[in-house]
# Entry
Amino acid sequence: MPNVVKSKLFWGFVAVLLAMAIGFWFAQMRGYDAHAAMHAKMHGTDGAHGMHAEHDMTNMPGLKGRDATAEESEELAVMFRRFQEITRTVENLPNGIRTVTFAEDEELMGIVTSHVIGMIDRVDMGRDPEVIIQSPTLDILFERRASIVTEMDVTEDGIIVIQTSDDPEVVAALHTHAAEVSAMVERGMEAVHEMMAARER
# Structure
């Protein structure tokens, strides 16, 4: 094969690879922008008031996150669909919180336990899942995770979590987030809507 033909084939191949790479980059950026836009709405940073329309109660796209796995998002979806089967008590301590979360159904209790342990592990590692509907209260807990001491115990009464801190702002955030989670356990996605509306005002 003449060298001229080989050269044309080579550069043609390079052009195809470059075009594919550019296309992949644009696709990634579109996904990033879409997530960022929805996340901004949840955190009340874009001045929008139409986030309620984002909640598809069948597919629940708001439960996806930039660093959340499909399994983690599905766990959230199951808990939101079956929130009436979950009970939760919270004791605000001077330096933190003590929570007990329970579900009579063994499969649901397994999902609750997996979610609680998984989220605490994420905080310990500083791996924010950035779930779209996620409360901004979590931001400080990830940022100052080194100041949080966590104890967990899975018992017949449910999963017991005690979290304490010497940082007053972290303690306040723990109290706030515990109340937010309890609201979601009591009222499901309705509580999420209420929190989003409060942040938009």
Residues 51-200 form one domain.
